[in-house]
Amino acid sequence: MLRAIGQTMCKTSAVVAEDIVLRGRLQGIGVRPAIFRLATELGLVGMVRNTPQGISIHVEGTPQQTALFRSLLPTSLPDQAEVSGQQYCESSPVGNHQFEIVKEDSREAIVTDVPLDAAVCHECLEEVRQPGNRRYQYAFNSCARCGPRYTVIRQMPFERADTAMVDFPRCNECDAEYHSPADRRFHAQTISCSQCGPRLWSMTADSQRCDDQQEALNEAAQAVLCGMIVAVKGVGGYQLIVDATNPDAVERLRQRKGRISKPFAVMMRTAIEVKQAAFIDDAEERALLSAANPIVLLQVKDDTVIAKGVYPDLNTVGIMLPTSPLHDLLLERVGRPLICTSGNREGTPIAFEEEQAEASLKGVCDLWLHHNRPIVRPIDDSVVRVMDGSCVTLRLARGMAPLRFDLETTQTQIALGGQLKSSVAWSQGGSACLSPHISDLGTLSGQERYLWHIADWQSLYRFSATRAAHDCHPDYFTSHAAYRLFPETQPLQHHYAHVLAMMIEHQLLDQKVLGVVWDGTGYGTDRTIWGGEFFVVDRTECTRTAHLRSFGLPGGEAAIFQPWRTALSLLNQLGWSESFEALSVFESLRMDMRLVNQILESNQFSPATSSGGRLFDGVAALILGRQHSEYEGQFPMMLEAIADPEEKGVYEFAVSDSAPCELDWRPMIRQVFEDVVSNVSPGRISMKFHRGVAEAIMAVCRCHSELPVVLAGGVFQNRLLSELIAEMSRDELLPVYLPGMIPPGDGGLAAGQLIGALSKLRESDVSGSTR
Amino acid sequence: LAHGEGGRWTRRLIRQRILTRLGNIHLEELSDAATLPKMNGAPVMTTDSYVVSPLFFPGGDIGTLAVYGTVNDLVVSGALPKWIALSMIIEEGFPLLSLDRVLTSIAAAARIAQVQIVTGDTKVVPRGATDGIYLTTTGVGELIEPAPSGPRTLEEGDVILVTGPIGQHGISILAARENLGFDPMPQSDCGSLWNAAEALRNAGCEVRSMRDATRGGISAVLHEWADSSNTTIAIDEHAVPVSSEVRGACELLGLDPLHLANEGTMVVAVPGKIARCALPALQEGGRCPMAAIIGEVTARRLAPVVVRRGQFAEIPLEEPQGAPFPRIC
Ligand SMILES: [Fe+3]
Ligand SMILES: [Mg+2]
Ligand SMILES: [Zn+2]
Ligand SMILES: [Zn+2]
C-alpha cells in the first residue's frame, strides 16, 4: 500500500533530496536494513551508511515521499535502537537509481556507540532447536538483532570486514539471506551457518582433540554430568562449567580454583526453570530476559536443586539464561543447571585465547571446549540486582558496557577509576562512556590487562587522552598509571567521585544534593580512611557534612579478612574488650586478641577509619560469631541473608551537633553486644542493626530535607538496607535516589572522576575568560 | 653524665670507660688520627650513622648495630673489613651504665668481626639535643679480587639467594618500641656477613651482587637491582625463609616481612649455573643453615619485582617507603 502511494507520487512531483544523520546506539542491531526497507517501500532512492558519527541517510524523491519517510522513520527502527540525536538538512539530488546500503571506511573520532553483545534471540534459538532447520544444533547462530558485537569488533563502524567474522566468508545461502531485504538476516554482520561459520572442538587434559562438533559437545556434556569441570570459550572469554546440582563437583571446583566460599553464578535454560529455583518478580524477570543477559541476583527457594555449596551461607544466588546457542546446546544435553563462572585463577583476568586458556586453566579444568571465532576483547558477565523495583548494576560488563552517558563537553579526558573492581571512563567528541569492569589490579596480569584495555579503547573509540583523572590515593596502581601514562593528571577524592557518578546517573548534575556514601575504604582528604560519609555536593564543590565516628582498623587490611579485629576495636571504645574476649565463640583467638588490643592504641598499626563497610564487618563478626572472611563484603552479605524481617526493633545511633556532624555508633554496638550475650537470635539482631543504620542515615537526611539524596558506595548493594531507606524516604516524602545503571561500588568510580575533572576544567575556562 | 666541663673531664671519660673496653695499639696513642699499615688490595671505605630507637632491643643494641652495619657494608662490597673510626654524640644525663653497655657491645662485636676501632671522637651535648646516644662509624677495608660485578650486571636467568630468615631485626625493633608482648620475642639478626661472603669466595662462586638488606628489607634491595639492571626479579613467596615469630607478628600488624629491615642477612645474586654451588657454600661454609634460593631474574615486565603465590598469581611487590605501615586500599 505504501509502495503504491510512493510510486504514484514519484511521477507527479519534482525530485528533492535530504540528508539525515542519526546518533546513538544504532549499529549492529539491524537499523540500516530497517531504513532500507522503509525507503524502498516508499519508492525513495539514495543510500544509508554507518559512519563513525552514527548512521547517515541520503534520500531522493518527491517532497511528499521524503516527508513521509521522515515521519515514519522513528517508528520503523528496531526496538533496541536508541536514538540520542538526529539532524535533517536539505541536500541536492545526485541522481541515484536505487536505494543502497553503502560501506564506509573512516578514521574520524567516533560519536556513535559501539554496539553491545546481545544474548541469542528467541528466533535464533528456535532455529537451533528445530530439527530440519539448516541451523539446527548450530552453536554460533545469530541475526541482525543478536549475537556478539563488542567482543568481535576490531574497529568502528561495525562491518563484517572489521570484525572477527572476517575469517568466515559467507556461504552462498548465508549470502542470499544477507542480500534479501525480506530476511531477518538482511545486512546482519555476524551471520553464519555450520557451512561457513566458526567451528567447535574439544581438548582433554591429556591433549586428545575432537574436531567433530556434535561429538565435542556431547563429550563436554558427558564430562559435566560426571562431575568434571569444563572450560568453555563463551562470548566474552572462557567460562568454567560445572553441574550446579552436584555438591562434589562444586567442591572440586572450589578446591581447584582456590575459592573457598565466594558464590558462583548459575546458568539455566529457561525462565520457567529459574522460577522453580528462585523467587522472581517482574523486574527481575525483565532483567533476566533482556538482551544484555546479566547474572541476576535472586532469592533462592529452600527446595532448589542447586547445591548449597554454590552460595555458601547466603540466601541469594546469581542466575542467568543462555548467552549463546552454544550455552543452550550444553544446557540441553546436560539437562541440569550449570555453574558458569569466569575462567581464570582467582585474582587474574579472564582467559580469552585458546593457548592462554590451556596454560592458565591447566589443573583447574578437565576438558576445554574451544572455538575458532577470535574474541577481540574479553569481557566478564554483568551482574545486577533488583532493589525497590528497579535494576541496580553490581558489575557493569557484557551486554551493558561501554555504557554511554550524555555530557555537555567537547573535551577529551580519561578517568582511571579505583583499585578494586577497576574500570575507566572517557569523554570525547561530545559524549562519555564508562568501560566494562576490567579485573582485579592486585596481580601483575590484572595490571597488564588494565593497561591493555586502556590502549584498546583509545583505538576503538579513536581518541587519545592527555588528561587523566584518578583517585587521590597516592598508592593505587591506577594513580601510578596516571602519572606514568598521561602528562596532565587530576586527583579526585574517592567518595566525592562516588557521589558525582550517582548524580550523572539521576541527571542531578545541575543541582545541589546530599550524597550518602558508604563503602569499604577510600582515601580521605585528612589522610585517614573514609567510608561512612555524608557530603553536600554540587558539580564543583563538596562539603563533608557528616560522617561515622571513626575507629581503628588493627593491622589495616588484615582487619578486612579477620573482621573480629574490627569488632574488638569497636567494643574497645566502650571499654568492653574483655567482655568480647570472654565470648566463647572466639575462645581460640584469645592470644591474638590480647595482641590486637595492644596495637589498638597505635596510630601506626591501627589506622583510623570512618568506613561504613568496616562497621558492617565488625558488627557481622560479633553477630555471626565467625572469624575469617574470604572476600570483601562476605560478612555483610551473610548478615543481610539471615535478617529476620518480622523483627521491628531498631538499634540507636547518636547524632552529634558538631560540624561536621558525627554519627556515633557506640549506643548501637552496646545494644548489639547486650543482645548477643543474652542470646537473642542472630536474625533478629541483624534486622535491628539494618533498621538502625537506615534510621541513622535518614536522621542525617532530615537535617538536609531541602536536598535530594543520592545513595552511593558498595554498602548500598545491600538490598535490605537500600529498600528500608527507600521505604522510609517515601513515608517522609524525602526524595532519595537508589543506584541504577552505574554501579554504586568502585566499578562506577571512573564516571564520577570524569565528571569531576571536566567540571574543574569548565570552571577554569570560565574564570579564565572573566579575567 | 655532665657536659661542658671541657677537655680534662672528657679525657677522663675516655681513659676510664672507652680505652679499657676498646683498647688497642692505635687507639691507646690517643692522637687525633690513626696511622694504618699498608694494605695489599685497594682500600674500601664506608660510613654510617646510627640513631636507632630503642637503643636496646632483643638480640642487640645500638653498639652492635654500629659495628656490624659498617662491617657488612664493607663485606658486601667485596672487602675484608679492617679498621673502624667511632664517633659518639652523647646526651647530657645519659646513664653511665648504659654507656658501658653500649661500649661493651661495640667491643664484643668488633672482636667477633675481627676489626679494630682505631680512632674516635666523643661529644656530650645538652639535654634534648639527641635521643640518648648517636653513633657514627667509618670503616676501612681491603678489596679482595675478584669483587662482585655489581647490580647493573644482573641478567635473565640469574638466581637470587637470601642468607637467612628475614625480618628479624625489623620486628624486634617494632616489638621493643611498641611494647608488644610477643612470646617468644623475635630476636634481631644483628651480625657479621663475613663468613657468608668468605664461604662464597672459598667455593669459587661468581657473585653478581651482594647486599645487606637493611632499611626497606629485601624488597628495597630487589627494587634497586631490578631498576639498575632493567629486569624484573620474581621471587617465590613460599621459598623465602621467615621464622614463625616474625610471620605471626607480621600477620598481626599487617606487615610484609619482605619490607622489614635485617642487620645480618643479605641478598645475593649469582648466575643461574652457580646456584647449585652457592647454596651449599652458604649453608655449610657460611654457617647460614636457613639460606635459600628465593627467585630469579627475568625479562623486564610492568613491575620491577613480583612475588609468586602458588603457580600463577604474580603479585607486584610495592616499593617500600619510610616506616613500615599496614596495607590498606
Ligand atoms: Fe569506594
Ligand atoms: Mg649502611
Ligand atoms: Zn537472533
Ligand atoms: Zn553459511
Automatic annotation (TrEMBL), chain A:
The active site is at 32, 50. Residues 17-103 form the Acylphosphatase-like domain. One of its GO terms (molecular function) is zinc ion binding. Pfam families: Acylphosphatase, HypF_C, HypF_C_2, Sua5_yciO_yrdC, zf-HYPF. GO terms for biological process: protein maturation. Its EC number is 6.2.-.-. This is Carbamoyltransferase. The gene is hypF.
